[in-house]
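Cross-posted from the bioinformatics board.
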Amino acid sequence: MTKTAESWTEHAFAALAEAGLRKGGARTAVVEALAGHDCAVTALDLDDELRRRRPPVGRASVYRALEQLEQLGLVQRIEVCRGTAGYERIDPAGHHHHHAICRDCGRMIPFEDSKLERAIGQLSKEMDFEVTGHDVVLRGRCERCAD
Amino acid sequence: MTKTAESWTEHAFAALAEAGLRKGGARTAVVEALAGHDCAVTALDLDDELRRRRPPVGRASVYRALEQLEQLGLVQRIEVCRGTAGYERIDPAGHHHHHAICRDCGRMIPFEDSKLERAIGQLSKEMDFEVTGHDVVLRGRCERCAD
DNA sequence: TCCTAAAAGAGAACAAGTCTCAATATCGTT
DNA sequence: AACGATATTGAGACTTGTTCTCTTTTAGGA
């Protein structure tokens, strides 16, 4: 496991405990599975992956865990393609990326940009709205699918 | 009808004709309905609105029309809340806005920001990816729902 | 007016996500 | 260590947004 994934896992367990949640098997399995992915995974992929475990994790538990993790700011939810959500860990150090999604092959290319973050940060302060998160998705075609 | 909505309607019909599409009743109704909304509407809201027309428009036709309009760059599709899409006109002059969505009441607050657009524009040029569109969604709580 | 392909409508089918509820596990308290 | 209140869990039914299928209707050029 990479260093950041490991520290995320610890951070996540700490935050869950902090929130007064007990440590059940299903949620623990979801956290571990998320630690194993470096970019967004869909809930159903996770479900597939965990359904095979001994003991198997139920779909409802996967969704439940993801929702709680999202609420605690531990994972980020993004729309990966028409009507399906992807989930990925949020780096506790605040470092994060966004995605370019290819309309032809569905491939997701992560990127980060400080100017973009700065613009959003400033905007968040100026608006009459309490911003807790943001999504940026670039849509188009990846270099492999370009004409 | 507002000035921009009117010009969008004309622009849309012209683009549809340009694309070699015939002018059927259902698609025309969808275009007119979209012109009547200044911010994103869900497909089902449109369906509801159009189902009551004389003659009524079928759901399949609504989705079909929205997809074509999206393909032609006439409407923009955004995720308004977990798993439901909203559609809104794209101003032919290129002027566009993004949305802040309240996690409590679901209200959508449109905003625009030139710094943000500039950051995205530059990023699009630098990336090894042909960017054709982008979504930005701020999530959090609106001032009415804030503690 | 005729003909052909596009457009449309009804409803079935599908897929992602949610809900229900009974069974189980956690963990502070004794 | 046992107890009990309460959180957690899994199975599967269900809901909801979206797409598909198939037949009928319509637009618009010949």
